[in-house]
Amino acid sequence: MTHDAHGSVPLGAGRPGLPSCLLLRAHGSLVAVALDDSALLVVDLQVAAVVRSFTCGTPATDAAFSSEGRWLAVALRGGGLRVFDLLAARCVDSFAFVRPVLSLCFSPNGAFMLTSHAKGFGIQVWANKFLFDPSLSAPLLQPEPERPTLVDEPGDPGHLFGEDPEDDDEVEGEEDALESSGKDAKGAVASMNATPLEEELFTLSDVAPARWLATLHLDLVKERNKPLEPPKPLPNAPFFLPTAHDGVTP
């Protein structure tokens, strides 16, 4: 094994200036290359050529391929996130976060995408709507998003979108008032957070996956929980119970 170059792929052909590479992400023979002029290129190493080219508007900070190599998710410097369908060669979804995405990846089955955000201590899990809505299986028949969808990170306060952080004291005061009136403040907050983020989005249930996955095998669960023996009737008790016993003085 040597360190000699086997070939080169020109990335700046037809572009003004000499854009430099900011990010490389590989998936098999495909390599996603983010340039400092806001371009995103997908290079096939087998043919040594650029097979896809996208314009993101701002430079990318991270990128991730799905396991089958169909989707490419890109986190942008300005807080945006775009998902590209490589087979259709177009953008299929676009988001904008107040807290920029630092890193992202797809689950092995491609059903979920995980993101981590700046000044955040958690990992956000996003469901892949293309696996749940059959009408989205043909991206060429769907228009590209004209503007990104503003999405607030779950569990974050509402002042991220421009509200005054001092209003948190008022929210705490309202929760104290709910507690003093006998209402469950946590339940009230949970019902407020259950509203959809957008009209075209759906809200996932907070029930544990093991519970709703069991409904797919309800017959097996009933068969497993069936008693081995039929219930036996209880012995009949006398109508009048004795109140005195031999050798006992009341």
What does the model show?
The protein is α+β, with helices and mostly antiparallel strands. A hairpin with a 3-residue loop joins strand 6 and strand 7. A 5-stranded mixed beta sheet has the order 5-6-7-8-12, with no helix packed on it. The termini are far apart. The longest helix has 14 residues. About 10% of the residues have low confidence. It is built from 4 helices and 12 strands. It is elongated and about 110 Å long.
Oligomer: single chain
Q: Kindly report the spatial arrangement of strands forming the biggest sheet.
A: 5-6-7-8-12
Question: What is the N-to-C order of secondary-structure elements (H for helix, E for strand)?
Answer: EEEEEEEEEEEEHHHH
Count of helices?
A: 4
Beta-strand segment tally = 12
Main sheet overview: 5 strands, mixed
Give the strand content: 25-35%
Short description:
By secondary structure, the protein is of the alpha+beta class.
Which labels suit this protein?
single chain; 4-stranded antiparallel β-sheet; 14% helix; 4 helices; 5-stranded mixed β-sheet; 250 residues; alpha+beta
How does the SSE layout of this entry go?
Elements: E1 21-27, E2 30-35, E3 39-44, E4 49-55, E5 60-65, E6 71-76, E7 80-85, E8 90-96, E9 101-106, E10 112-117, E11 123-127, E12 149-150, H1 167-180, H2 185-193, H3 209-213, H4 218-224
Parallel strand pairs: 8-12
Antiparallel strand pairs: 1-2, 2-3, 3-4, 5-6, 6-7, 7-8, 9-10, 10-11
